[in-house]
Amino acid sequence: MIARLLGVEVPEALAGALRQCRRHFVAAAIFSLLINILYLAPTLYMLQVYDRVVPTAGKTTLLFVTLALALSLLALSGLDMVRNRLLVRASERVDALLSPRILEQMMATETGSTAQAMRDFDAIRSTIGTPVVAAMFDAPWTPVFLIVSFMLHFWIGIMAVVSAALLIALAWSNQRATQARMEVATTAMAASQNAQQAAAMQGMTVRGLGMTQAMVGRQLDNRRIALASMVDAQLVGSKLTATSRFFRMFVQSAALGLGALLAIAGDISSGAIIASSILLSRALQPIESMIAGWSSLATARAAVHRLTHVLEMLGSQRAYTVLPAPKGLIDVEAVGVRGGDGRGILMGISFRAQPGKIVGVIGPNGSGKSTLGRVLVGAIQPTVGAVRLDGARLTDWDPAELGTHIGYMPQEPSLFEGTIKENISRFARPITAEEARAVDEAAIAAATEAGVHEMILQLPHAYESRLGLMGAGLSLGQAQRIALARALYGVPTVLVLDEPNAFLDNAGETALIGTLTRARSRGATVIVIAHRRSVVDVADELLLLEEGRPKMMGPTSAVVRRLAGPQKTKTENAA
């Protein structure tokens, strides 16, 4: 029903979630039937007052029909409240079914469509609980009021049918006039909001470079374009909404005039004059409510369009076989990765990393080192080839289970809002007191292994010190050492560290080398992406990448000699 109202094909994931709410919608439809039957009470009341009470001066009759009206309207209000609660609960149910999967998809793919996905989903979800959807449930019962109109008099029925048809035509015109405009407007506004958020997250850089006014002007330009489209759509919609309101009010008054003519002719009673006006008003109200709420429907429709790509990627939950704890043997088999523009980032990467060994990955900027690191931990999937852990492809592991065996430190520290302990423990959510104690012990052990325990104790609240958005509150060097502790949390079998010493001083680098040596000693497989010689020297093997291709791999001493050979020859020739 909601899909038909939006006039758009709903993705299967969303359609499935709506089907899960079928009981809510069926109950809302039943309540709508009862509500619309009770809406006849004012009409019947007017007939009784003018046709029975007034001619007979029946005060007792007036008392009882008034009590009946009060009870009817009280029941109507209660049923309407329950129906609205049902729709709100349905929207809550849809959120519970889809929001976890959408958030997982957002974490899995870093694209513009996924960044906007939750805002679009919230627009759809909130629309389900709005009065416009309640009006949609009322609309099918409009024929009931039309039939009752014919029961009052043939011409009153004809007037009701013609008025309903004209109002539906206005609703269709509203949809045609605003649909394209609203889709353009909401898409432009979403892009503007994403740009504003990105600029705000880089606020320190913007201020430091004196770019504040320039960035404000740029964002205002984007917002002005988006707002112009939105205002255009809203102005068009407001004209049609005002027209529909005028039409309904005119019809309601015209019904009085028609009723008066029929009463003068003796075809209907005086009570039917007022009753016909109330009846026509109620018959047209759902249609007018849908027209008034069309902007929210158009926003939801545009959101469905934008969300379709994300929802189509939400496949059914895959079942994973629980694999034994890995020893840490990494096999990279002819891995290749292409960017969104089709350009090759990695090509033909093959090597083996043994447990108890440190493999260093070196190469110039843009050679694909960081991309290789993401592939090794399963953060991105290779276009071709495979990465295996103890013979099993990374895709054959449950991602959550795989994460417990891998310690990954990205090039940027990438800490999150929360406490130091929460960041180190990867935001573990213990349930029992014993689990909470185990998390505390593991976090302290990881911090100690990373050589950052003493530094944490010097913070105002130690492990409970809170970081701001994007991990604000620490220097880059401190954040990098916390990120190293996070990578070590849970004593992972595989460590993949991307430029782990980029922001470290000499003391921090010394602690890092000690950490790498101890990890090797306990049998972990360590892969370090680095530039500095101090970290490279501790590696057992080196892999040299150039333009996304493996140029050289072997024992560290042999690779270093080969790299130094041409330079040494040039020096001897110069002498």
- Describe the largest sheet: 6 strands, mixed
- Overall tally of domains: 2
Shape: elongated
By CATH, the architecture of the largest domain is named Up-down Bundle
| Strand line-up across the major sheet | 6-9-10-3-11-12
* Integer average pLDDT: 81
The span between the termini is 86 Å
Protein described:
The protein is 65% helix and 11% strand. It is an alpha/beta fold.
Which short descriptors sum up this protein?
about 65% helix, six-stranded mixed β-sheet, 12 strands, disordered C terminus, single chain, alpha/beta, 23 helices, ABC transporter transmembrane region fold, Rossmann fold, about 575 residues
What topology emerges from the helices and strands here?
Layout: H1 2-6, H2 12-20, H3 22-38, H4 41-56, H5 59-108, H6 112-115, H7 117-128, H8 131-138, H9 142-152, H10 154-201, H11 203-208, H12 212-264, H13 270-292, H14 294-312, E1 330-338, E2 344-353, E3 358-362, H15 369-376, E4 384-389, E5 392-393, H16 399-405, E6 406-409, E7 418-419, H17 420-424, H18 433-449, H19 453-457, E8 466-467, H20 476-488, E9 494-498, H21 506-521, E10 525-529, H22 533-537, E11 541-546, E12 549-555, H23 556-574
Parallel strand pairs: 3-10, 3-11, 6-9, 9-10
Antiparallel strand pairs: 1-2, 1-4, 4-5, 7-8, 11-12
Helix pairs in contact: 2-5, 3-5, 4-5, 4-13, 5-7, 7-14, 8-13, 9-10, 9-13, 10-12, 10-13, 10-14, 12-13, 18-20
